[in-house]
Fold:
Amino acid sequence: MKKTNNILFVRIAGFTLYLLIGMSFYGISQQDPVFTQYMNNILTIQPAYAGISGSLNVTGISRAQWVGFEGAPNTNSLTISGPMRRYNVGLGLSIVNDKWGPIRQNGVYVDYAYHVKLRQDQFLSFGVKGGFNISQAYLTDLWVNDPNDMVFANDVKINFLPNLGVGVMWHSDRFFLGVSSPKILKNRMQNENGENVYREVLHFYGMGGYVFFLSDVLKFKPTVLYRWAERTPSFVDLSGSFLLYDRVWIGATYRMQNSYGLIFQFNVNTQLKFGYSYDQTTFHPTQVNSGTHEFLISYDFVYSRRGRQVVPRYF
Structure:
């Protein structure tokens, strides 16, 4: 099995690096990390989300992808977001660590959002984000069939990749609709010889969700996330979750032509939430891995008794 994993990994790595040279990260090496519980981690791709919950929120997600597959992706993120009500402003911080096989990527971004009240509890939020990624790849550590293959002859040195992003959201406590482009600049990444290995491409996201109150104890939340990137296929994430007694979320998700999974989240109270999701791929590597596991913990801090009423968060 280990030998099979090595062969598959080398094939995937070779194909991916070919794509890196020709265009950008694609498939298992996406430019931006992918999360199943994306609606609890949307700040990483949508700066207008900063502060919309009305309280200081801290969320951590750890994702172990394709468990049992050697060199499989592993991603961890920490997001912090809170409002400055006096100025109708939200601030955020996103820290992401992403690695798969020989590739390592760490990103730190800060977010600023301005919230305009439309009517009742509806808002229009405009956001910007700025920060950087530090990326590198230890290609010479890979075992390859052809030791003279120039694709793997040099490591990709540490690259400092600054970037900017923008986004806008229309939202209330029960729905949201937004678009964003989290990385506008097209940075180039170089190997140790100073040769360009790949260039980042523009990514655009469309997102939306709504909460239906089916009864006093049951709510239903469908959500969608659409991703488009230059010269690569688009992806659509669809999910639907039921909320029971404002305590337990149970749902399912489907990433078109990629994976499907189950989501479970538990609200300990109106501030603390734990989550878990399990994915299984719809393509060949399912034969050599036992799925993807993702763990979440989220906490909302209450400012004061005069602050916004804290209720179970829907988004």
